[in-house]
Amino acid sequence: MPRGWRWTIALIAAGLVAVFAFGHLFTTFMPWDDEGYFLIAYRDFLSGRILYDQVFAPYGPLTFYSAGLLAGFDPANVTNDAFRWITLPAWIAIAALLASVVWRWTGRFTVSLSVFLLAGLNLQGLAASVGHPQLWVIMASAILVWLGCDWASQSGKEWRAFLTGSVAAAILLFKINIGIFSLIAISLMLSLHLPGWARSVLSGLLILAASALGIMLYFSTPSMSEKYFALAYLVSLGAIVMAVINLSADREIRRACLPWLAAGFAVSACAVLGVTLGFGTTPRALFDNLVLAPLHLAKTYHAPFWTQKASLVISIMGFGIAMIAIQPRRLLIERSVWLAALKIGAGASLLFESWLDNRQALTGSLLFLWLLVLDAPMMSGSAYFNRLLLALLSALLSLQLYPMAGEQADWAALLLMTAMAVLLADGMNLLVRVTQIGRLPRLSNFAGRAVGIFLASILVFSMGGNALRNFRQWQREQPVNLPGARWLHLPTADVDQLTTIVSQLVRNCQNVMMMPGLYSFSLWSGVPPFEGKRFNSWVFLWPEDVEEHEMRDIRENSHSCILVSGNIYKFFRKLTISKGNDKLLTEIQQTMNPIAAVKDITIYRPN
Asked: Roughly how many angstroms between the first and final C-alpha of the chain, as a whole number?
């Protein structure tokens, strides 16, 4: 395809993704109000409260520094609208980064276009959690893959190793669990190709650590669906390692790149943590928030990941057929046609299933990651290390869906989609090579290209329809017209509820305790939250602290209020593993005076 046509199609696709993202971002406000928690935390931080000692968060310090930078270090700029406008270009940039990975590695435009559109569709979970650091974690993960690991086999690219270490540190400093997964993936990729005893010792320890994560998930979850997922993850990890051992055991990395990688990680991590401690954060608060709090959160809440058994059975059958049909030691000489067909079939079917339901494709995609490192003849060192990094990152980052498989499941699927796209494109390129040496008729080459054209066409029409629908919804619905939420459009009934509650808070309350923490009401009304530890689901995290301190003070102040959302309280209650503190809610309802109620939200004040 001529370059001019490619650019024209790419610009049209970018426009469709931009309209789709705009319409979805500015017509979505989730009732559990994740964004209110993040925005109030950013305002507290920018207003001078000490991070982790006075601003509670189980997220890393880069979460707050990036928010401060984007807000111009002015708390007044932290609004619902402003962070939606920040999310919009980041949304498009993430999709573009993942697409550019496929394009640079394979040169297949239609497959790259498919990834761009598919990622654009499946990033819609960002609208449910505006302000969430996961946006930057996804961006950093895409940059990590875009940087690749060709520096492991080529000299003169040490700066890329340094940047890879810096990006890995950034992920850790946004969200500690995903940072650990990324570090294990990068370290395992390198250790599998160290010389001598270091390979056996280090790779063995890292394989044990990566396997332990899957085993812990298997035994800690009561959900059979998540047990199936954990088994698929363990099989995927084992298949990738066995493919490396059987086919690429003689490959070695350039050990000169390792100090650059370590330096990039150490410099970035030490600089950010040093600044954090320099601004007054105590080491104890840092440890409590970044280590103990995530563990407490994981023990308190669980939203299971559901997948259909039929989808898993089909994936296992496909995996079994692939393992039986391919004999690795003969493959590179005799079976390149079958390898091409397997890559095209697996990649295309899983990408198509990702379009239908990315959660159903997630588990199956894990079982075919090992095919990324197989080629006939063997691929170059740069291509091999890049694909091995993508395979290991895709497997390990899929674990982020535990313990809360909400939007995290959609985000976990992004790298897997990219991996399946690379698999499809590699199969198409292998088919071209087989055709050129005369093993297949030329019509076979067209059949491979037709798969990419068909998939891209479906996604263009799908994105176009969704973009038009979202934009019309934004035009049809009513502006919220609350401070910092002028561009947000919602149904009339929702707007009336929000504005009525805000006006009641302004009229009756000097401060308000949210149960659970719906902090956007505080942002819109200007009435500050009463509780010192703020989290949207705090009522099941530290109810004893609130009972001993905040409730006592509220009873002594006739101008303090408590806002209770019955439906959202029940929503969080269903997700809790522990019993929770239903006694606190009962006490509020029995001992305090309701002064306003709209639908399920009631404002109470002391008698």
From this structure: 75
Q: Residue 313 and residue 145: Cα distance in Å, rounded?
A: 30
Do residues 346 and 420 lie in contact, with contact meaning Cβ atoms separated by under 8 Å?
yes
Structural contact between residues 341 and 365, judged by C-beta atoms closer than 8 angstroms: no
Mapped onto helix, strand or coil, the DSSP state of residue 96 is helix
Q: pLDDT tens for residues 438-479?
A: 555 665 666 678 888 899 999 999 999 999 999 999 999 999
Least confident segment among 31-40, 180-189, 194-203: 194-203
Q: Do 121 and 462 contact (CB within 8 A), yes or no?
A: yes
What is the model's pLDDT at position 326? 58
Least confident of 337-351, 418-432, 453-467: 337-351
Phi and psi at residue 531, to the nearest 5°: -70, 140
Residues with Cβ < 8 Å from 342, sequence gap 6 or more?
A: 322, 325, 326, 371, 427
Which whole-number Å values give the CA distances from 222 to 149, 177, 305, 571, in the listed order? 38, 21, 11, 19
Beta-carbon contacts of residue 339 (< 8 Å; ≥ 6 apart): 326, 331, 371, 374, 375, 376, 427, 430
In DSSP terms, which residues pair with 490 in a beta bridge?
478
Q: Which of 524, 476, 471, 468 is nearest to 501 (CA)?
A: 524
In angstroms, the CA 311 to CA 305 distance is: 14
Q: Which of 102, 92, 122, 168 is nearest to 397 (CA)?
A: 168
pLDDT in tens, 533-556: 888 888 887 777 777 777 888 888
What integer best gives the mean pLDDT of the chain? 89
Q: How many CA atoms lie within 13 A of 220 on its CB side?
A: 15
Q: Which residues pair with 301 in a beta bridge?
A: 576
Spatial separation of the C-alpha atoms in residues 20 and 468, rounded to whole Å: 7
- H/E stretch holding 450 reads helix 443-476
Token look-up 């650091």 returns 133
- Which string of b and e fits 460-472 if b means at least 16 CB within 10 Å? bebbbebbeebbe
Tens of pLDDT, residues 315-329 = 777 677 666 655 555
pLDDT at residue 163 is higher than 80 = yes
Residues 557 and 606: beta-carbon distance below 8 Å: yes
Distance separating alpha carbons of residues 20 and 114, to the nearest angstrom: 16
Determine contact, residues 316/231, Cβ cutoff 8 Å. no
For residue 324, give both structure tokens: 């039986």
Over residues 428-434, mean pLDDT:
85
- pTM score: 0.93
R_g of the chain, CA atoms, integer Å: 26
Phi and psi dihedrals of 592, rounded to 5?
A: -120, 160
d(CA 505, CA 564): 12
List, in sequence order, the alpha helices (H) in 107-196.
109-122, 134-147, 158-174, 176-191
Q: What is the pLDDT of residue 333?
A: 47
φ, ψ dihedrals at 108, nearest 5°: -100, 105
d(CA 236, CA 393): 12
**Minimal CA–CA distance to 425: which of 100, 169, 196?**
100
Q: Report the distance separating Cα 492 and Cα 587, nearest Å.
A: 33
Give the pLDDT score at 192. 92
Whether residue 188 contacts residue 166, with contact meaning beta carbons closer than 8 Å, is answered with no
> What's the CA gap between 21 and 547, in Å, rounded?
42
